[in-house]
Design goal:
The protein has about 550 residues and is of the alpha/beta class. Helix content is about 35%, strand content about 25%. It folds into 3 domains: about 180 residues, Alpha-D-Glucose-1,6-Bisphosphate, subunit A, domain 3 (Alpha-D-Glucose-1,6-Bisphosphate, Chain A, domain 3, 3-Layer(aba) Sandwich); about 220 residues, Alpha-D-Glucose-1,6-Bisphosphate, Chain A, domain 3 (3-Layer(aba) Sandwich), CATH 3.40.120; about 130 residues, TATA-Binding Protein (2-Layer Sandwich). It has a 7-stranded mixed beta sheet with strand order 2-6-5-3-4-9-8, with helices on both faces. Bound molecules: alpha-D-glucose-1-phosphate-6-vanadate and cobalt (II) ion. Cobalt (II) ion binds next to loops.
Length: about 550
């Protein structure tokens, strides 16, 4: 075995987005493309003096190119003096499992291979992300340092060793490095068993409670099967589409009512089980579904927060709640009622890390079907589903009853996101620039029954390290708390995706049964009036409405 130094030249566009570097598989397959990015990670870690002899965690969501990328990264890790790499069997680790293993094994960090909810397969997307020693996504100062290295590097180092067998657990040597192939599920399952009342959930299933968990042919299947069917005794067949496939069965592994259509059809029909749930490509998102009711992720965060103490892991109460800026303010009302702080961060889980590390927040959530807690430093799909199971077991109430009760107590935040996907990037940027130019003049203006209280481009100052993130989304906030938010996605791989977020609060229980789009129609019209989004994007309608 020899360690080679291979000459290379930079690729443009290797700046990590909301959650790592995501590109088409074909872009990643260019010679040197993956290697350059991985070299930049090692150069960044080297500059911090951190790599030699240390442990890294490595795994991915099993999508096409996962295995090939793992072999390359292992050979590069060996060439950079890494002491040990813990890799999930078959190259499989969900994003929350990587976070769990980094923390449990006190690793230096980890590399997650995923493009999450983006489609997979040879024509689909691939992605890579570095997580730090707290188990969470690297903060901006590290991702920017990685990007800077990608633009200047001239070579990368790699061992010429043979591929490692990833299909058996156990230890293998690669140069001077140990490769330990670990069970993908066990550390994570053990963590879950410590947070939730597994006895109560087991008893719930024994009483005949029925559920469907749709793994969407992605990575959460093995976790859900082992925990929900294995440890909690749900009948075989409760978890469907449980085997991770390289192309996710040709589907779009995003757990929302549009992409998890099969689950929604079941929950809307005569044979609906008591509870439905789904998770995304890399297992960090979740959708909670009752009969004829898909729970809004913003509501799910608020409901979890309001009921946190039913779960043993949160019995002592929560310290605070953090939500991303576009996420509805339902959680803010719960925080106020509990007398705890509520933090508003930019989109992306990396902004929650400092708040969780400092003990300022216990629960975090995003409108994009992501919820999680201080137990790891990623959002966590199976965790959210287990929380809901624990809540149902503890209260004896259905999903629908829990949601209705919550609205009756706190009011309802009608909420929707309209995505305009694969829009011409120049047109999308021009739309955002024009909108930013108008912001100063908007405050005080009235639109129908709404009066603008504040219009700005969101800037976040991290309360822990004072780092500042600018241009995080345009928000137009009305005097009654209703909001219109517009931002460009940082995870897409084709043109630009414009996201329009809409929120309106309704206190009156008699008006909690409206259709969401109807309830938001006045705000949808104002958003178009102010941004000319449809016209600029050249679209009649959004591509996805959730
Ligand atoms: C989207 C979501 C964001 C989420 C991110 C990663 O980002 O809006 O809330 O954190 O995906 O989720 P963007 O920039 O496209 O809006 V995942 O499940 O891809 O790790
Ligand atoms: Co994901």
């Amino acid at each position: 075995m020899t360690i080679l130094t291979i000459a290379t030249t930079p690729f443009a566009g290797q700046r990590p987005g909301t959650s790592g570097l995501r590109k088409k598989v074909t872009e990643f397959q260019q010679p040197g493309y993956l290697e350059n990015f991985v070299e930049a990670i090692f150069l960044t870690l080297d500059a911090l003096g951190e790599v030699q002899g240390r442990t890294l965690v490595l795994g991915g969501d099993g999508r096409y190119f996962n295995r090939a990328a793992i072999q390359t990264i292992l050979r590069m890790a060996a060439a950079h003096g890494v002491g040990r790499v813990l890799v999930g069997r078959g190259g499989i680790l969900s994003t929350p499992a990587v976070s769990c293993v980094i923390r449990k094994r006190a690793a230096l960090g980890g590399i997650v291979l995923s493009a999450s909810h983006n489609p997979g397969g040879p024509d689909g997307d691939f992605g890579i992300k570095y997580n730090i020693d707290n188990g969470g996504p690297a903060p901006e100062k590290i991702t920017e340092a990685i990007y800077a290295h990608t633009q200047t590097l001239t070579s990368y180092r790699i061992s010429d060793a043979d591929p490692v067998d990833l299909d058996q657990t156990g230890s293998i040597r690669l140069e001077d490095m140990e490769v330990e192939v670990i069970d993908s599920v066990s550390d994570y399952a053990e963590l879950m068993a410590g947070l939730f009342d597994f006895d109560a959930i087991r008893a719930l299933f024994q009483r005949g409670f029925t559920m469907r968990f749709d793994g969407m042919h992605a990575v959460s299947g093995p976790y859900a099967k082992a925990i929900i069917e294995g440890m909690l005794g749900a009948p075989a067949g409760t978890v469907v589409n449980a085997e991770p496939l390289e192309d996710f069965g040709g589907h779009h592994p995003d757990p929302n009512p549009v992409n998890a259509a099969e689950l929604i059809a079941l929950m809307d029909g005569p044979n609906a089980p008591d509870f439905g749930a789904a998770s995304d490509g890399d297992g960090d998102r979740n959708m909670i579904v009752g009969r004829k009711l898909a729970v809004s992720p913003s509501d799910s965060l608020a409901i979890i927060a309001a009921n946190a103490t039913v779960a043993p892991g949160y019995r002592g109460g929560i310290k605070g709640i953090a939500r991303s800026m576009p996420t509805s303010q339902a959680a803010d009302r719960v925080a106020a009622a509990l007398g705890v702080s509520c933090f508003e961060t930019p989109t992306g889980w990396k902004y929650f890390g400092n708040l969780l590390d400092a003990g300022l927040a216990t629960l975090c959530g995003e409108e994009s079907y992501g919820t999680g807690s201080m137990h790891i430093r990623e959002k966590d799909g199976v965790w959210a589903v287990l929380f809901w199971l624990n809540l149902i077991a503890a209260t004896g109430k259905s999903v629908n009853e829990l949601v209705q009760d919550h609205w009756a107590r706190f009011g309802r935040n009608y909420y929707s996101r309209h995505d305009y996907e694969a829009v011409d990037a120049a047109a999308a940027n021009a739309m955002m620039d024009a909108l930013r130019g108008k912001l100063a003049g908007l405050a005080g203006q009235t639109f129908g029954g709404f009066r603008v209280e504040l219009a700005d481009d969101f800037t976040y100052t991290d309360p822990v390290d004072q780092s500042v993130s600018t241009r995080q989304g345009v928000r137009i906030i009305m005097t009654d708390g209703s909001r219109i938010v517009l931002r460009l996605s940082g995870t897409g791989t084709e043109g630009a995706t414009v996201r329009l977020y809409l929120e309106r609060y309704e206190a009156d229980p008699a008006r909690h049964g409206l259709d969401t789009q109807d309830a938001l129609a006045p705000l949808i019209a104002i958003a178009e009036q102010v941004s000319a989004l449809k016209q600029r994007a050249g679209r009649e309608e959004p591509s996805v409405v959730t």
